[in-house]
Amino acid sequence: MKAKILIIGSLLLLGGCGATEEKQQANTEMSTAEEKQKAEVNKDGKVTEEDAAEEETKEDSTEVTASQEAAQTSPQYRMKADFSIQNIKVPEEKVVLLTIDDAPDKNALAMAETLKDLNVKAIFFVNGHFIDSPEEGEVLRQIHKMGFPIGNHTLSHQSLKGITEEEQRREIVGLNDRVEELIGERPQFFRAPFGENTDFSKNVVAEEKMLLMNWTYGYDWVKEFQSKEALANIMINTPYLRNGANLLMHDREWTSAALADIVKGLQNKGFKIADPMLIETPKNKTTAAQ
User: Residue 126: which residues within 8 A CB-CB, separation 6 or more?
Assistant: First the structure.
């Protein structure tokens, strides 16, 4: 058993890929519903293009306002040097962070819907080659509209250690630009492909006011855990599960299938799923101080 844990530990190091108060939310939902009802018919009993355009604009405005309010909320969690998180005021709180890399490929939207149904959040770390068509861009918008923060996982998922500084900047800043085009805001979180950073990439991440992040454990790239049952079991019962654990998952079919069981299993063990928007980042730390 000890030998198996040591092998898994090595795989973990080498294998990875790479809010408002309830009352405010209720008021927002009520207001949106009222506006939709008003826009349903005009004086002739028909929905006009102007009605639809006006309603879409109001919905987009509501989303931006919610994002701004989340950014102004005082952070509740802080990332430690080992990439785990900790409640700033209650360090002993049992909390874990969910992250999903290589999004949005074939399963990210379904994974977002699963998490939304369970009322928990995760960071979706995006690769640029998965959002280079209008259809893929729309999937990213849908995930963002559901309330999930979008993280930067570089344009093409190359190892940053194997490319020039100019290419590293393009991989990071270029993706931030693309994400901003699609959802109206730049990522606050960065995860390098394969967890491999350079001194230069760290500086670029700091310039972009993102929180540099890796993970504490993950398994879904290991062959023996590429099934719903095996993956859910190891993610919940691994010896690496601890307070503040930063869980790495990917946009994969078996991970999507196991996701609900993983969340429920963590909760049954007393762990709270952290809202990533409440993690202290260079951007929200500055905003909160203003």
Answer: 103, 104, 140, 150, 151, 152, 153, 175, 179, 187
